[in-house]
Write a sequence for this structure.
């Protein structure tokens, strides 16, 4: 049987150590093709570049960089550039956690989201440290999950969002199936003057104050476990539909 075709992207860019660790580990699972942004695209969410052309450059065997977003990469690869349809899309390994409310900002998760929209089983993988020292751990976890998903499949319209503690593999406290938590950043807007005296602004701040409620992704990684969150395409608030219906909004 032909090897499974695995498409890898990320949002930290083609030269990110997390990308190469992931690609190397996945070579044992299938035929790996990398389409990744030419520079960091963290927090670009699910953006696509529709107002300018996109350029693709081959940088190695089955390795390509794109001057676009993670979603651009997946779209170009699947719709145009790959010779076959991927059996799996994996996005990562991100430098830094993608937990709770991070998901809507994340370029890493968006890469997997696009794969899901295209009907391909998709996984986003993040190392929870912004200065990772144990990228091999997340790579091993990714390879295991990839093999599992290729064997067992994923439900339609679902992606897996995976966060891995930055510890040696043997020190992981197992895996937890989790819910998406909540955590807001303490945003700080830095205001300065440019050389011509015009104000500019830079969005900064500190990491979310972990609420770490039971069963969440925040809690799992705080306990040293791999967090695996199934994320559904449909984010409708089912519980409130009847409430809204009863309000009888008249137009
Ligand atoms: Mn990133």
């Amino acid at each position: 049987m032909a090897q499974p075709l695995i498409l890898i992207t990320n949002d930290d860019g083609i030269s990110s150590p997390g990308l190469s660790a992931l690609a190397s580990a996945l070579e044992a699972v299938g035929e790996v093709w990398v389409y990744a942004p030419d520079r960091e695209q963290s927090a670009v969410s699910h953006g696509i570049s529709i107002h300018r052309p996109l350029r693709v450059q081959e940088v190695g065997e089955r390795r390509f960089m794109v001057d676009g977003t993670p979603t651009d990469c997946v779209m170009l690869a699947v719709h145009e550039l790959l010779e076959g349809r991927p059996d799996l899309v994996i996005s990562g390994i991100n430098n830094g956690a993608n937990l709770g409310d991070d998901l809507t900002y994340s370029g890493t998760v968006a890469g997997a989201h696009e794969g899901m929209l295209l009907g391909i089983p998709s996984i986003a993988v993040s190392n929870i440290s912004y200065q990772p020292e144990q990228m091999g751990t997340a790579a091993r976890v990714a390879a295991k999950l990839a093999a599992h998903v290729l064997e067992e499949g994923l439900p339609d319209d679902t992606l897996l969002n995976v966060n891995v503690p930055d510890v040696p593999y043997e020190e992981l406290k197992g895996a937890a199936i989790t819910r998406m938590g909540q955590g807001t950043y303490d945003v700080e807007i830095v205001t300065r003057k440019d050389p011509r005296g015009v104000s500019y602004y830079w969005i900064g701040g500190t990491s979310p104050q972990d609420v770490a409620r039971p069963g969440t992704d925040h809690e799992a990684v705080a306990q040293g476990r791999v967090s695996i969150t199934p994320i559904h395409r449909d984010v409708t608030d089912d519980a409130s539909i009847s409430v809204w219906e009863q309000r009888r909004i008249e137009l």
